[in-house]
Request: fold
Amino acid sequence: MTSFPPGTPGSEPADLLHRLGSGRYFNHEFNVETIKIALGEQAVSDRPDLMIATTLGSCVAACIHDPVRGIGGMNHFMLPDVPASELEGEGLAAHYGSVAMARLIKSLLTAGAEHGRLQVKLFGGGRVIDSSYDIGGLNSRFALEYVRAERLILAGHDLGGDSARRLHYFPHSGRALRRLLRPEAAADTVIHERRLFTRLSRPTGAGGGKGAIDPGAPSEPGGI
Reply:
């Protein structure tokens, strides 16, 4: 059985090595080895004893699964479309949905999945940043449209609302569990997202530019 967890050189295609999850630990609640992914990362595996986890505020994660092959993967992106300034080289391109979705699908196909069997579950897109611009809604709409345009199977989605989420995904079975987080539990995630949104939404420099997204002034995230 082929699997693609981090920390095992030679087990992943070369183009996956730098995009696998940044953390790895044993989750005693679920009794499984766990890969934690952050913004711009992904993980792919067919191991039944492995879980992928992440925490989402305005960001969206796509869990994509081939039920026949028994392989799945998850990504984590923060804005829909990559700007031209990020197209050359790796940069921060994987932080954007258009790149993150294409890379995850490519990774799954490389590992033996078939496009026509791919089932997608979408999570996140909460309105947790105080701003006139609904970043979570933009991410959610992009993800749903991407699934439709690529003729993938939408197996389920949990998008929107005003709470951050913690997501646990079992790539071998395709099972996904999400938990809504109280504001205090999601504070670090929201602060991190706000800082990165500020950085990525100002392509013309510190003063911003046409079309830049204003993440708003610091505020408490929405809760349940």
